[in-house]
Amino acid sequence: MSLQVKDEVKADVLALEARYGRKPCLVVIIVGENPASQVYVRNKVKAAAYTGMESRLEELPAGISEEALLSQIAQLNADPLVDGILVQLPLPKHINEEKVIDAIAREKDVDGFHPGNVAGLWLGKDCIVPCTPAGIMRLIDSTGIELKGKNAVVVGRSNIVGKPVAKLLLDRHATVTIAHSRTADLGAVCRTADVLVVAVGKAGVVTGSMVKPGAVVIDVGMNRDAEGKLCGDVDFPSAQPVASWITPVPGGVGPMTIAMLMKNTIACFLSREAR
Ligand code: GUN
Description:
With about 280 residues, this protein is of the alpha/beta class. About 45% of the residues lie in helices and about 15% in strands. The protein is globular, with a radius of gyration of 19 Å.
């Protein structure tokens, strides 16, 4: 399914190059050597290459100063040939993530993390929507479920996933509950869900007995089990027989997130070129 999105972008890239005389360009920045982040950024650049857009990976040393990183971002903000800037999170502790996110020009913020884009999402204005929540909506839509009037439960309240996906579900007229680590009787709350989105970053927080029969289950988790194998937040073996549809880990939300990043790069290109 993420392949379909990337193919849509591939067609867009060709059409945009013909119309504007240049291809969209995405710059991905990684600071340090977090192994998971290295895999993610490589996959992002690989996907960009697949679509035919321009992209490059800037690998900066873990010890880079906040000032130097901010100045790198300022240069990219000023570069007319750069459409999208993504700084992979998390950053080393000596760098203030909020400052870095705020420094990326809003119109190049392919992550949708800039306060201007966050405000746009919550006020219902035109904005860049964060990639993971946008991908989750595309996955839910692929099931054909009508969200209007359905109960959606989001487990997790992060700025990157939980909060924005709750707003997107609300925009589609679902009745949305946000559950989290302090929720009393998480199982009872989850069992009300026609659509269950789990994004807490802890393996096995949701098991089959917490899933309403026939529910659509979206597992955003990306954890390692005791043997070092990738696994989600949902216990797949027990949940899969109960759900009508469930995303696997790996291979579910992750690839769709990257595909939506490609879409956001196109949107940023257009917001600048079509001014
Ligand atoms: N780290 C984990 N998820 C993300 C994401 O969506 N964007 C960025 N920049 N970093 C992340």
